[in-house]
Amino acid sequence: PITAHAYQRNLVAKETIDNVTGVSVREEYTYDDLHRTTLPQTMTAVNSDGKTYTTEYKYTFEDDDPVSQLMAGNYVMLDFLVGERTLCDGRELMNTKTKYVQHGEWFYPEYEYKSVLGGAFFETAHYDGYDDKGNPLTIISNAADTASVIWGYGSCLPVAKVVGFGRSGLSSYANTVNSLETTSSPTLLGSK
After folding, report:
1. How far, in whole angstroms, is CA 22 from its chain's centroid?
2. Cβ atoms within 10 A of the Cβ of 127, count?
3. What is the pLDDT of residues 96-133, one digit of tens each?
4. Which one of 13, 27, 34, 129 is at 20 to 30 Å from 186 when CA atoms are compared?
5. Which of 112, 89, 88, 109 has its CA nearest to residue 100?
6. Count of CB atoms situated within 10 Å of the CB of 98
7. Strand partners, 122
8. Which residues on adjacent β-strands are paired with residue 43?
9. What is the per-residue pLDDT across 61-73, written as a single tens digit (0 to 9) for each?
10. What pLDDT band is residue 172 in, cutting at 50, 70 and 90?
11. Cα 68 vs. chain centroid, distance in angstroms?
12. Residue 136's CB: how many other CB atoms inside 10 A?
């Protein structure tokens, strides 16, 4: 019998030196021992002033959230990022989390959260609804600022962003929204 072994080569360390200032930064990377992702689990940077900055990455296969477990288990979406934590000399500077939602066979970000200096998490973004191409329709930033995105060119590119309205608030502008969504060439509304 023939046995084959696949080996993935990952960047383990690198050092960058600025020739003008002489400042150097050494970065070291660690990876998942079970090879569930080729992306780094941690990145540690030590700069010439002796400070150590560490970024820890958390993926779906490490998360207890049921949607993350579904993504990692049934859909083999192991390396979707669900969290990122940044520390300086062991003190937490920032921590972010992303919660996903399932629409049909696809998964999309639904909420993004952030914590600063070890404080409580607060919502930074809420994606309220997606179209059939996976484009976000309404984005709520910082739990208060609402913006609707209108997609044109076959739902490939955003053609308008309406601030202050959710998608349902645009119903009185249905004709304009429909004109923008069916845009297939770069023309201005009302021009001939």
Report:
1. 34
2. 19
3. 999 999 888 889 999 999 999 999 999 999 998 888 88
4. 129
5. 109
6. 21
7. 114
8. 29, 55
9. 999 999 999 998 8
10. low
11. 14
12. 21
The separation between the first and the last C-alpha atoms of the chain, rounded to the nearest angstrom, is: 71
Tokens of 54: 């560490």
Chain-centroid distance, C-alpha 130? 16
Beta bridge partners of 46: 26, 52
- Torsion angle of alpha carbons 101, 104, 108, 112, nearest 10°? -20
d(CA 71, CA 102): 9
Angstrom distance (rounded) from CA 121 to CA 124? 9
CA atoms within 13 A on the CB side of 10: 17
Tallying the residues shown for the chain, one arrives at 192
Whether the CB-CB separation of 29 and 40 falls below 8 Å is answered with yes
Q: Cα–Cα distances in Å, from 52 out to 44, 88, 137?
A: 7, 6, 40
Give DSSP secondary structure letters for 49-84: TS-EEEEEEEEGGG---HHHHHHHHTS--TT-EEEE
* DSSP tag of 185: S
Dmax (CA) for the chain in angstroms is 71
